[in-house]
Amino acid sequence: MQKIKNIAVIAHVDHGKTTLVDELLQQSGTFEAHQEVEERAMDSDAIEKERGITILSKNTAITYGDHKINIIDTPGHADFGGEVERVLKMVDGVLLLVDAQEGVMPQTKFVLKKAIGFGLIPVVVINKIDKDGSDPDRVMDEVFDLLVALDANEEQLEFPVLYAAARDGYAKWEMEDENKDMTPLFEAIIEKVPYPKGSPEADTQAQVFTLDSDNFVGRIGITRIFNGKVKKGDEYLLVKADGSKSKSRISKLIGFKGLERIEIQEAEAGDIVAIAGFSDIDVGDSICDKSNPVALDPMHVEEPTLSVIMSVNNGPLAGQEGKHVTSNKIQERLEKEMETNIAMRMEPMGDASFKVSGRGELQIGILAENMRREGFEFMLARPEVVTKEENGVKMEPFEHLVVDVPEEFQGVAIEKLGKRKANMTSLTPMPDGTIRLEFEIPARGLIGFRNEFLTDTKGEGIMNHSYLEYRAYTGTVVSRTPGALVSMDDGEAVAFSIFNLQSRGVMFISPQEKVYSGMVIGESARPGDLDVNPLKGKALTNMRTSGTDEAVKLVTPRKITLESAMEWIEEDELIEITPISVRIRKKSLDANVRKRQARDKKNSK
Ligand SMILES: Nc1nc2c(ncn2[C@@H]2O[C@H](COP(=O)(O)OP(=O)(O)OP(=O)(O)O)[C@@H](O)[C@H]2O)c(=O)[nH]1
Ligand SMILES: [Mg+2]
Fold first, then answer.
1. Quick one: which of 478, 474, 300 has its CA closest to 387?
2. What is the Å distance from ligand 2's center to 523 Cα?
3. CB of 19 sitting under 6 A from ligand 1
4. Of 9, 10, 19, 77, which is best to mutate to test ligand 1, by the most ligand atoms within 8 angstroms of its C-beta?
5. Mean pLDDT score of the chain, rounded to an integer?
6. Residue 14 Cβ < 6 Å to ligand 1
7. pLDDT at residue 96 above 70?
8. What confidence score (pLDDT) does residue 217 get?
């Protein structure tokens, strides 16, 4: 029987997980000498590569001496915390990375809390010790304090600690040691992470934690085997979360080796393999012995905290840029997403609209971005937090927020967050002269905050947040102050009018761009919406030079992205998303209807 270790790499966003996995791959000798590992090789998806972040957890396997180490790289961004939660059940140990300068951050707490809850002993890796301003001792103290605060047991408190610069390819036991290679980390994994429990002789029990597909064999479940064996060609029982069962044969069994996948004949307790042959295999399903099926506990991850209404595009430009535009197509696509993405939910709301819920704006934004790349066209409304009722009390999600700001912006940050119902829990001067402020804040208060924060701190502030818990509802929080500049006509925007409108606020559009009545074309400098005409040409009599329209000096418009729009829009606005464009519009395109609604709203107050 092969000696196996199963680990997950967990951390706050950007603390170096994927880079560390590169080095483990490179230095394990899993590759031939001539093979080069591409930078951040595990971030294989297009959006992951573009943004340099991990979105989906992915696994690989390396050989080290006589051991096989299955490694799962996880995402660090708070919105993808569900990926980390489901992976933790599949491993016997975690490498907890903490940036030697940034220290413990909101998502460090979230992932460590989950790992401690599963009884795992973390191997702590203080990473990026090469960085200026790194302070490994302070960070080490922070990790220890956090473990105490999380009620870690004695054994967990005796966690091993290493110091590393993943990018430079070394890890060491003591800061004084020489910078050599990853050997100390390999040793720590072999010595400190327990071997998998379970027996190859017992009846088969395995659980699917990720889905994949293959053009030839169809759906593939990436599976941790907890007991017994799985053999190609043998028949097993698939047990779903709702208890339903179906029998099937394993048509293909795939093992992992570095970045490659190899066909194998059998695998046994402790290992992680990919299984094909079950057409309706899903995340969380158990694969069991057919004569003695004992299903594993279904997977549980935290519920979504944010939701947004997605609907069919019904604006005047609908259907011109997208390939998939109907309610049926959108529903089909969302249903497919929910099969693999267990941290998200979808609910049809009638009227060609769907409520899509997830952990945050980025998670919902990435789904929307993937859909537009696939040719979909649709609209999104303003994100709303998911509230719930407990013992007759309305509850809403709270977040743990950390902001790092230069001292001069401390006042404005505290003031603005106060208005958003944030409660400050600590204020710490950092070695680099910045101030670290920590808050507990209703998730609602964070919607649209990032833009304001970056403006207030002249781009120098850094903010990070992660889900804390549900608490009693806190009442109204402030929202966007500036109004919208709304087009009152259909057609193509004219440079001369845009030039004239520039004094009214910040424009979102360029000349020749298609606009329509009710479309938001800019942010007003004042509160309250303003109907404007972006189509007015220059009156000929005023023309003093022979310059054409293009000669008018225009300020570069503010680029509307899917995520910036989700932060910006108000309740009476929508985002129109097509493979080519992201536009913001009013829910009611008719100016008279909007006026009446505004009047009614005022009167009802
Ligand atoms: N100075 C320094 N930079 C590092 C080190 N390790 C990683 N980085 C850099 O940190 C950045 C983030 O690295 P990633 O490996 O993508 O971080 P990650 O934890 O996988 O990020 P997510 O998956 O998005 O949470 C990259 O620019 C790396 O080059 C290190 O040891 N020292
Ligand atoms: Mg990563």
1. 474
2. 35
3. yes
4. 19
5. 91
6. yes
7. yes
8. 83
* Percentage of the chain modeled with pLDDT above 70: 96
Ligand nearest to the CA of 126: 1
Number of CB atoms found within 10 A of residue 199's CB: 14
Ligand nearest to the CA of 16: 1
Tell me: pLDDT of 541 over 60.
no
Is ligand 1 within 6 A of the CB of residue 131?
Answer: yes
Q: Whose CA is closest to atom 30 on ligand 1? A: 128
Ligand 1 contacts CB of residue 329 (under 6 A): no
Task: State yes or no: pLDDT of 330 exceeds 90.
Answer: yes
Using H for helix, E for strand and C for coil, what is the string for 429-479? ECCCCEEEEEEEEEHHHHCCHHHHHHHHCCCCCEEEEEEEEEEECCCCCCC
Count of CA atoms in the C-beta half-sphere (13 A) of 447: 29
pLDDT tens for 520-538 read 999 999 999 999 999 987 6
CA distance 560 to 217: 41
Q: Residues 209-254: pLDDT tens digits?
A: 988 877 788 889 999 999 999 999 999 999 998 889 999 999 999 9
Beta bridge partners of 491: 515
| Alpha helix positions (H), 10-63 | 17-27, 46-51
Q: How much distance in Å is there from the Cα of 52 to the middle of ligand 1?
A: 9
- Sheet strand arrangement including 93-99: 58-64, 67-73, 3-11, 93-99, 122-127, 161-165, 170-172
Give the per-residue pLDDT at 477.
Answer: 80
Helical H runs in 42-135? 46-51, 81-88, 106-117
Residue nearest ligand 1's atom 21 by CA = 14
Length of the chain: 605
Instruction: Tell whether ligand 1 has an atom less than 6 A from the beta carbon of residue 11.
Output: yes
Going from the C-alpha of 122 to that of each of 299, 307, 446, 512, 572, the distances in angstroms are 22, 33, 31, 57, 47
Q: How far apart are CA 236 and CA 243, in angstroms?
A: 15
Mean local confidence (pLDDT), 359-364: 92
The whole-model pTM stands at: 0.89
pLDDT bracket for residue 498 (50, 70, 90) = very high
Q: What is the predicted pLDDT for the residue at 321? A: 95
